[in-house]
């Protein structure tokens, strides 16, 4: 069993896992951090502030706001 902890994942390991044959699970601590991050993004989306790359485009589209109804 390979635990995804949220730490570095070397390309060789990622390749090996992508070939199948080894079960993978998300470490509970990594799941908690992921859920916390999602809550932050959800708060940003519901707010009025533009946050680069979260509810705006990137680069030349940084001033383009993504409408709230585009978030699932």
Order of helices and strands: EHEH
Structural class: mainly alpha
Strand proportion: 5-15%
Widest sheet: strand order?
1-2
**DSSP strand count:** 2
Task: Describe the protein in words.
The protein has a two-stranded parallel sheet with strand order 1-2. 1% of the residues are buried. Helix 1 (11-18) links the parallel strand 1 and strand 2 (24-26). It is mainly alpha-helical. The chain has one domain. It is elongated, with a radius of gyration of 17 Å. It is built from two helices and two strands; from the N terminus they run E-H-E-H.
Features:
single chain, 72 residues, mainly alpha, two-stranded parallel sheet, 2 helices, 2 strands, 38% helix, elongated
Topology overview:
Elements: E1 2-4, H1 11-18, E2 24-26, H2 28-46
Parallel strand pairs: 1-2
What's a concise summary of this model?
With 72 residues, the chain is mainly alpha-helical. The chain contains two helices and two strands. It has one domain (2-70).
